[in-house]
Structure formats: C-alpha cells, structure tokens
Amino acid sequence: MNNTTSRAPRFWGLGVAALLAAALVAACGGGGSSTAGTASALAYTNGPIAGFGSIIVNGVRFDDSSARVEDEDGNASSGAKLALGTMVEVESGGIDDGAGRATARIIRFGSEIVGKVATVDTVASTFTVLDQIVDVKPETVFDASLTLAGLKDKTVEVHALLDAATGHYIATRVEAEDNPAFYKLRGLVSHLDTTAKTFQIGAAVISYATIAAADLPANFADASRVRVRLQTAQVGGQWVAVTIRGGVRKVEDHDDARLIGSVTAFTSATDFEVNGLKVDATNAKVDGTVALGVRVALRGTVTNGVIVASEVKVLKAGDDKIRGVELHGTITGAPDAVAKTFVLRGVTVSWDATTVFKDGAEAQLVDGAKVEVKGVLSTDQKTLAAKLIDFGS
Prior knowledge:
about 400 residues; CATH 2.40.50.320; 1 helix; globular
C-alpha cells in the first residue's frame, strides 16, 4: 500500500481521506497555511477519526492538548470518548497543508444511532437497528468487545454516514452501549402525519404525540433532518419520541472547511447538501458527477452556515478500499511476542514479516517505547496491521 500522496507528506486516514489529500490539498496549492482573518474565522473539518497523535481527521493531524471536547449538545466531555471511526467536527486554527497539522480548539462528537440490533446478515455485511439497515465496510471500526456475527440483541452506538440514495447508514464505528436510558436516531423525516402525530425515519415509525408543538424543531417537515431520543420499547409497533431536535448544527463562519461524506440532499450540481450541511458549489471546480447518495470530498469556506465549495471530488466505489490508519504514541504494556501484538493509544497493533521497521528493530518493541505506526485495519476490524513502525517519530 502506498503510504504517501502527492503534495501531502502525512499518511492519510480512515476511509477515503487519501482522496481528499490528493484531490483537494494539491489542487488548492499544497504547502501553504490557512490563516484566520479574525479570531472567529477558524478552520472547520468534519469526518471520522482516522488516527491518533493527537487526532487525525481527513488527513490533518490536530493537536488536541488544549481543545475543548464536547458532545453534540455542547456539553463538556472527555477525550476518552474519541476513538477510531468516531464522527467528529473539529474547529481549529489555520491548517498548515505542507505539514498536515493544526491546533484544535473544539472537538465535537456525535453518533447517528443508539439501539438494540435486531438482525445480522454476515453475507451482505449489514445489520438492522431501530428498523434501519447499517452497512459494514472494510474500514468500519468495531469496539474490541464486538463482532459483526455476534451483534444480534446487543445494544450498540453507531457512528455513520447516511446514504440518502439507499437509506442505509454506512458505519464508521460500532461500539457497545450498556443500558442506555434512551435510544437515539438521526435521519430524514418522511411520511409526516400531523393528525396521527407520527413520522418515519427509514422504516421506523415514530410517534411524537407526547411532544408539544413548541418543542418541535423549526421547519419540522418531510425531508428535514432530525435527531430523536426514543423510549427503549416500542408501543403498538411504534417508537415513542421523547425529544426531537434539529439534526444539523449550524456551522459558524470559517475561512477553511473540509468534509468527506455523502450527498444527503440534491437540487442541482451546484446546490446540494453533504452530511446535512448545505453546499454552494456555484464557483467550485468539480471532479465527477454530483448526485444524491454519492460520496464526495470537498473543500471551501463557511459563510452564514453554508459550505461555499472551491473544490469537490466525487469518490468512486473503489476508493473505499483506501483505509489507512496512523497512530503516534507510547506502547502500553509488554508486547505479546507470540501473537506479535502490542497496544498503542488503546488500539491493538499487530506486526509480521512484511512490517517495515524504521530507526529501530522488532526487539525494541517494549513497554514505554515511543513509536509511530502506519497500517490498515485487519479483517477483524479491530486490530491495526502495521505496515510501518517508526521509532524515530
């Protein structure tokens, strides 16, 4: 696997981040720095975490040492909530494209689904939860306690991207969720019935009869994106909403915006949404055909909550096979010389005869050793198979 991209010196991360590096960073000039015109004009990045040291999102390594970590409601949280595949928004200072680095100021995380798994299809690599079909891809990260085959009847939290064309959720991370007080579902409203006080998200029928009109989000209508907390048991075949909130947070103005995601609404090639965020591509350089459900990498600015795109790259199906992960840190505990594994940043790393060692050797893999690891997820979707272990990081 090629560990570099043209004009970008870092090892680009989980899923399709390599495409963002090659298609957008180089196209937008490479080695300069994004600079903030005012204290509030920062860089905005949206996508799954693809590595640690501090965190790596869309190919950029963000120093998170002084960042505020918060949940999707703005509540202060812990960096322990951040893991490979977690979907995050990062507000940072200017991004140095030459070094692929920036200093994070706010890291905000949020998932799409919390609920009990009803069915599993290991052949199709899918499972259903809250009547939604979740697709598992080679780059999907599983919590160490989970496997696809063993998911049935487990309660899970799913970080994902919605494929608006199929209605499926493309999982970036699946983790165990023990005894949640409520389930959660984020998606697009359909079949809204204001008389019966019901609507659907995918195949899930949701009752909002107990919610006052004043507590509904603005512009609550078919095709709007919402986040719903649900009771954990259905009533009469319906899920019962406890709260309904807007599913997309308004993004403040930023000089630099970078996203990887799916087109969730489409009016035209210049007017569409990505991950629920409105995009104006009127003056953008577009590579490929933008349509509902396609995956794109884009770059631009944010003005009045709209992503004003300068570059849009439509990602092909084969691009999902690029799933590099990069970890920087100190080995925790003694490596297992028989299994050839060690733990780094909470991730189990394996090595074999094909692993390249730089500025050191296998014998130097000991508790406390500082290393940089570049590799890909193994077929168990938990272990990082190291392609390079660098002791000089």
